[in-house]
Amino acid sequence: MSRSSEFTGFYKLPVTERVKFVKDFGNLTDQEEELLHHSGPLSFEVADRMIENVIGILPVPLGLATNFLINGRDRLIPMAIEEPSVVAAASNAARIARTTGGFNTTSTESIMIGQIQVVGVSDPQNARFEILKSTEKLLNLANDQDPLLVSLGGGARELQVRVIDTAVGKMVIVELLVDCRDAMGANAVNTMAEAVAQMIEQITGGRVLLRIISNLAVRRLARAKAVFSKDQLGGEAIVEGIVDAYAFAAADPFRCATHNKGIMNGVTAVVLATGNDTRAIEAGAHAYAARSGHYTSLTTWEKSKEGNLVGTLEMPMAVGIVGGATASNPIAKLALKILAVRTARELAEVICAVGLAQNLAALRALASEGIQRGHMRLHARNIAIGAGATGDLIDRIAAQLVAERKIRVDRAKELLYEFSKV
Ligand code: MEV
Q1: Which of 333, 341, 356, 378 lies most in the core, judged by the most C-beta atoms within 10 Å?
Q2: Ligand 1 center to residue 361 CA distance, Å?
């Protein structure tokens, strides 16, 4: 019998009651119900305040990438990700990079853009002029909303106004440029955008509709560069292969989506580990990659005069080290402590270095033996666990699956049966 998912006031129930409801709805077993009761380091009390209708906690492995040397400083990188090979690949690329000085990084200030959409303006260019004339008043009003941010040296810095053509006619778009310092800044920016709406209506005679941050954070960029020695990479042919692989991505959006996904494997894992907003970063990254109108690579790869490989990555990186889940999730706090970053910009630069390392590792594998061999070695362990193996049997079965080149659950189950008999 199918049950209704309609439930008013689900949020009012205690977590245990919600779990009972979902158990009944989803025909969960007692053991499955039990899984939902394990909260781990993030208590239900905190989780229940982070989002609505909490019924459990989804654990994701937290790995540690090693070997990173960034601007001359050694860093250990916590990465939260479910995909095998990513942490090992990042560590491997970082090991190669450190022989030539590691990663060099820079960043812009932490400036986010808040957009205010004005519709129903008959004279948009005149409106633009008048809004810009009131810049100081509007910035002051925005800054009145967040005295703490202002006291920390941040706040609304600039105002820009664009008149855009849309399917329903011309629109005036006002943009507040806000220095968010060490916060991701969405709350601060959205509050400011809402606060100036009325004044903008008075100035323009139009009607303000949307008031929201843009995730295309072009004024909050992080950059990383590294030189990878041709000898460490495995020779000049690999360097050329990587440059050709990059050219493929830069020219073709089908390849480029996967190429950039490889970068985001590293980026998103650190963003998640530090309790930051993975969707904001993903949205910004892909929009930035398409900013010319042609979706292209976030990284660049060139061969230097000496025949070594030079890689760069530039991308928006709206991450914070204060507020949000960075403050409430104890593991995110720990990740930030391990990273030992003092500012949001430092975190953004570290993440960018990880993205570059991740891309190098993927391209190097793809341009040589392919990714499946290394990937499958790690994947085999997951298959063994999926087949029911525990303890030592996981590695024994995984090794056998790799040796036989049969990384499949049915074979893992057979091996489990065989190995368990003796
Ligand atoms: C897999 O998660 C990521 C890669 O597909 C990236 C790439 O193709 O560059 C290996």
Answers
A1: 356
A2: 9
